Automatic annotation (TrEMBL):
Organism: Microbacterium mitrae
Record-given protein name: Protein-export membrane protein SecG
Gene that encodes it: secG
The family this protein is said to belong to: Belongs to the SecG family.
Extent of the signal sequence: none
Recorded topology in the membrane: Multi-pass membrane protein
Length: 84
C-alpha cells in the first residue's frame, strides 16, 4: 500500500503544478490580475478559438485527475488508520 501512496503523492505534485500552469495560461476575461500582467493588452489579439477550447479540455481533464488523486489519498489515509 505504501508504493501506491507514494505514486499518488507524486501524481498529486505533478498535477498540481501543471494545473496551476494551465490555469495561468487561460485568457483573461477582463479586469483583475490578468490585466496587470498584460492580459488586457493581448485580449484584443486573442488566441484561436480551437486553442482556447483545447486548453479548457486539458484543464478539465487534469483537474479530474487531480481530484481522483486527492480522493484516493484520502481513502488510503482513512483505511490505514483503521488497519493500524
Amino acid at each position: 500500500m505504501a508504493i501506491l501512496e507514494l505514486i499518488l503523492q507524486i501524481v498529486l505534485g505533478i498535477t498540481s503544478l501543471l494545473l496551476t500552469l494551465l490555469i495561468l495560461l487561460h485568457k483573461g476575461r477582463g479586469g483583475g490580475l490578468s490585466d496587470m500582467f498584460g492580459g488586457g493588452m493581448s485580449a484584443s489579439y486573442g488566441s484561436s478559438g480551437l486553442a482556447e477550447r483545447n486548453l479548457n479540455r486539458f484543464t478539465v481533464v487534469l483537474a479530474l485527475v487531480w481530484f481522483v488523486t486527492i480522493v484516493g489519498l484520502g481513502l488510503i489515509t482513512k483505511f490505514q488508520g483503521l488497519a493500524g
